[in-house]
């Protein structure tokens, strides 16, 4: 059962990708077929004005739709028609509806007028008044007027129809452009567009798939990483050792009991400056190659070796794959319409309008030919009129009247049809213009409003899609804001601080792993470029080591004047003794010490008790006792009676008390805290001796690092000599551990900075960054601009132009009807005037006589000349109804 399920999944997957492939191929073919389109340069301002004009003041229908929607949302009952009635101004409605109304009117009038025009009998019944013999009909000025107005109107009609033929190109190009840009969009979206920096949804999907595969436990990538990590483990050991030793010394020096032995009124003079000078060594190490190298290695290990962050990344990738697949399917589905060759595709849908099967050109040609025919008919009618019209002297020959009537009816029908077509086209361009304005102005806000008004629920997914569309496609969106989908798409945050918190795809994909590793590598690169690789012989280290080697702590514990000055007894001690150290002898401190200590002459206890000394400013300070009156064995014995002192007795007592109670204990009691490295594997409290750490046959042994690559320390109380030894030991420690570190770095630098970096970047960092950078969706704006250019600014505006041409042509054609009507009317009136003496019965009798004559082949006299013209009139009467139907 499970197998079956998996099989069917795989099969649908295959089938789907095959269908996708086919659609892509069709898109390719369509791009070949339709692209490139030459869109003539567009004056957007003017084109927009035209669109607004045809869509109505600020897009009337669209506004009405939105108003209706908001009204319905507010619970009012309202429909689109009533909103339209409220919002549309009467002038606008009249302007849009006039051509159709004209067509309707002409159609109605036809039934009353044209047969009536063409039926002489009725004409006579209605307009007896008009039956007269016009003399001016032959007048030259009248004829010139007639001809000029006719030629002008006919010329205009034919020219307008000819110009409208040219417009078919705009419509066809617009539709071709729509096909081209849609196919291009589909192709770019799914397969990618390197020139516009878009990777394509299919490649993106594949890349994510590859990525998640290489992150599966046990993948070749992870195994490679593992092996390099284990080969370079020693670096971590060395760096941890150095790091912790560097931390340990400040601990030692900063320990309060070492700085101010509790209650002993002395402070450590070297501790603070030594700690400060250590800072530059710590900085050297922290910014150095070894540390950066280890940081990079540890970052890789942290991200890839331990399960949680890699499984987070895997799940993020899975999450990202989903919307990408949905997007791909949506695009293939929606835009696929423009590409599919099936019956419901765009190509089939527009067959009639574009391409070889287009009926646009033939239809425009038919209209044009019809206009020519109408013009030629009118021309012929006027020629006949000019040739044969007698100016009322005699009845015109029959063709004069019939031809002008025919031409007139032709022009009339033509005008009606053109009004109808033009009216329809105006409505089409009004709706098209409205849609186009909405497209041109599209942004997230308008998209949301439109969806709401169409009653489509706008949830977070739709909002995200709209946001993407807004930033990617909208022609009005801020050009400075990002066009990278990875920055736009929001996914549920990995560690949300509140319910429903989201985060951009870029953060989720990159921040987790790639950014961290990349950041660590950038630091390493920086260190490699600017820092020395070896540190053991670095001057900063040498300085610190020389400080450490020259430490003499007994000479560096100095009385704390403030404490003494506030003590009830000690405050009587002469201030000259404030500079006396805890060392028995005087000492001039070595010059290789931090400033403030180097070359300082420090008086010792002997000078204080017996010898005296001079301060830095040269003032002599006497010893407490004359030599013969004291028993002094530094630091064990001090016996002297202050009554035999060099000082006042009280001063002497104070100094003596201070010496005995606060100075001598410093030298003998375990007042200090020492800090030792724990020997790995030994009972707690076993010191690890730096002497045992040696380099043998190229490898370091006994480095005092635990198997878990850390070091541990322990502390214990100690006297000042041990403490001094403790501090001084760091000199040699630093020498050895930095040697060790340098050796390890030298061994492993290539493996980490090149091999490990190459593996991780090839399989993880670069793919992630490439993917994220390859999501620039600017190509969608090109699509949208191309689509609006071709569909709106070309096709719709061409339709609009054709519509106005036709309406004008129809109007001129109607005027032409008037001109022909004048000619016909004159001719008709003259004819009628010659007939007007005859009543209907006489005409009937004549008719009978004529029939008799024809039947009997007899010639007989015509009673009057007028009857001769009745026959043609009758003939016309019989043809007229035919025309009128
Ligand atoms: C995905 O992996 C396959 C083979 O492992 C490789 O051929 C293909 O180029 C990779 N695709 C991407 C986008 O990395
Ligand atoms: C876009 O950025 C440029 C420079 O960064 C700035 O001069 C311009 O004002 C910004 N435009 C907008 C619309 O923010
Ligand atoms: C110090 O000397 C005085 C007299 O010189 C004497 O009275 C006193 O007892 C002596 N003090 C001590 C502690 O010996
Ligand atoms: C170092 O090498 C020498 C000779 O090659 C050998 O005798 C000695 O045992 C080696 N020492 C260690 C610690 O391996
Ligand atoms: C490493 O091992 C030592 C000794 O076994 C132990 O004291 C220390 O806590 C360990 N450190 C870590 C980080 O596990
Ligand atoms: C100041 C004082 O008392 N000095 C005495 C020191 O000791 C000698 C003898 O040892 C005396 O002579 C001094 O008077």
TrEMBL record:
Position of the signal peptide: 1-17
Assigned keywords, A-Z: Membrane, Signal, Transmembrane, Transmembrane helix
Skewed-composition ranges (Low complexity): 863-885
Region of interest (Disordered), residue spans: 855-885
Transmembrane segments: 100-123, 144-166, 364-388, 409-440, 805-824
The keyword Cytoplasm belongs to this UniProt entry's keyword annotation: no
Keyword presence, Signal: yes
Source organism, top-level taxon: Eukaryota
Name under which the protein is recorded: REV1 protein
Organism this protein belongs to: Symbiodinium natans
């Amino acid at each position: 059962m499970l197998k079956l399920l998996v099989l069917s999944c795989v099969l649908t997957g295959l089938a789907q990708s095959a269908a996708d492939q086919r659609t892509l191929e069709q898109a390719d073919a369509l791009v070949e077929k339709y692209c490139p389109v030459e869109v003539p340069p567009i004056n957007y301002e003017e084109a927009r004005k035209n669109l607004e004009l045809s869509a109505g003041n600020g897009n009337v229908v669209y506004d009405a739709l939105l108003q209706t929607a908001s009204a319905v949302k507010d619970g009012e009952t309202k429909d689109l028609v009533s909103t339209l009635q409220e919002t549309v101004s009467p002038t606008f409605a009249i302007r849009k509806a006039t051509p159709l109304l004209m067509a309707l009117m002409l159609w109605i009038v036809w039934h009353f007028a044209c047969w009536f025009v063409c039926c002489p009998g009725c004409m006579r019944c209605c307009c007896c008044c008009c039956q007269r013999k016009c003399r001016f009909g032959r007048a030259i000025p009248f004829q010139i007027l007639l001809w000029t107005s006719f030629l002008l109107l006919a010329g205009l009609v034919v020219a307008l129809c000819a110009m409208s033929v040219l417009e078919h190109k705009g419509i066809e190009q617009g539709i071709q452009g729509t096909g081209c840009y849609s196919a291009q969009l589909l192709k770019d979206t799914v397969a990618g567009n390197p020139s516009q920096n878009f990777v394509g949804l299919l490649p993106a999907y594949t890349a994510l798939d590859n990525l998640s595969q290489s992150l599966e436990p046990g993948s070749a990538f992870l195994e490679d990483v593992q092996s390099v990590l284990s080969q370079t483990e020693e670096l971590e050991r060395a760096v941890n050792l150095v790091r912790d030793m560097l931390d340990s010394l400040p601990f030692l020096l900063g320990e309060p009991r070492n700085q101010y032995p509790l209650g002993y009124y002395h402070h450590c003079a070297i501790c603070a400056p030594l700690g400060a000078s250590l800072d530059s060594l710590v900085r050297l190490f922290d910014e150095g190659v070894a540390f950066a190298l280890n940081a990079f290695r540890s970052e890789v290990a942290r991200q890839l070796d331990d399960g949680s962050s890699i499984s987070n990344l895997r799940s993020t990738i899975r999450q990202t794959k989903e919307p990408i697949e949905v997007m791909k399917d949506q695009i293939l589905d929606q835009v696929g319409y423009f590409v599919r060759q099936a019956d419901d595709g765009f190509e089939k849908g527009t067959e009639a309008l574009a391409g070889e099967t287009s009926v646009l050109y033939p239809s425009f040609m038919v209209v044009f030919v019809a206009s020519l025919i109408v013009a030629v008919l009118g021309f012929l009618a006027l020629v006949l009129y000019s040739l044969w019209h007698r100016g009322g002297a005699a009845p015109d020959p029959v063709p004069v009247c019939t031809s002008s009537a025919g031409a007139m009816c032709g022009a009339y029908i033509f005008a009606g049809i053109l009004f109808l077509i033009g009216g329809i086209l105006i409505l089409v361009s009004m709706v098209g213009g409205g849609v186009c304005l909405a497209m041109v102005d599209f942004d997230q806000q308008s998209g949301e409003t439109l969806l709401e008004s169409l009653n489509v629920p706008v949830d977070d997914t739709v909002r995200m899609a709209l946001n993407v569309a807004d930033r990617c496609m909208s022609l009005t969106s801020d050009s400075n804001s990002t066009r990278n989908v990875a920055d736009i798409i929001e996914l549920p945050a990995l560690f949300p601080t509140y319910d429903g918190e989201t985060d951009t795809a870029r953060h989720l994909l990159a921040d987790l792993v790639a950014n961290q590793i990349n950041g660590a590598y950038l630091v390493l690169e920086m260190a490699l470029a600017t820092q020395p690789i070896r540190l053991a012989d670095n001057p900063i280290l040498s300085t610190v080591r020389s400080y450490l080697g020259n430490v003499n702590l007994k000479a560096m514990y100095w009385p704390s004047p403030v404490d003494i000055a506030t003590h009830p007894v000690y405050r009587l001690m002469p201030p000259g003794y404030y500079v006396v150290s805890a060392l028995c002898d005087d000492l001039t401190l070595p010059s290789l010490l931090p400033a403030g200590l180097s070359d300082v002459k420090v008086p010792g206890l002997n000078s204080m008790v017996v010898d005296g000394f001079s301060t830095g400013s040269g003032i002599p300070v006497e010893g407490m006792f004359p030599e013969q009156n004291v028993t002094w064995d530094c630091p064990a014995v001090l016996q002297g009676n202050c009554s035999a002192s060099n000082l006042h007795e009280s001063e002497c007592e104070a100094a003596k008390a201070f010496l005995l109670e606060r100075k001598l204990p410093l030298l003998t009691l375990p007042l200090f805290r020492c800090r030792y490295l724990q020997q790995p594997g030994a009972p707690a409290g076993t010191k690890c001796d730096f002497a045992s750490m040696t380099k043998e046959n190229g490898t370091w042994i006994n480095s005092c690092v635990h198997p878990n690559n850390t070091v541990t320390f322990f502390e214990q109380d100690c006297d000042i000599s041990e403490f001094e030894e403790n501090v001084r030991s760091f000199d040699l420690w630093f020498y050895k551990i930095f040697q060790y570190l340098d050796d390890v770095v030298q061994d492993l630098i290539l493996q980490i900075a090149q091999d490990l970096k190459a593996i991780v970047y090839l399989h993880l960092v670069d793919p992630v960054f490439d993917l994220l950078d390859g999501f620039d969706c600017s190509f969608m704006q090109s699509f949208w601009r191309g689509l609006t250019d071709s569909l709106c600014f070309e096709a719709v505006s061409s339709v609009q132009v054709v519509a106005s041409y036709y309406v004008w042509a129809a109007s001129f054609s109607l005027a032409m009807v008037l001109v022909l009507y004048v000619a016909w009317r004159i001719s008709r009136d003259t004819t009628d005037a010659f007939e007007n003496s005859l009543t209907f019965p006489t005409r009937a009798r004549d008719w009978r006589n004529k029939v008799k004559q024809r039947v009997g082949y007899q010639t007989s006299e015509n009673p009057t000349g007028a009857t001769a013209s009745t026959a043609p009139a009758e003939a016309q009467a019989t043809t007229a109804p035919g025309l009128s139907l």
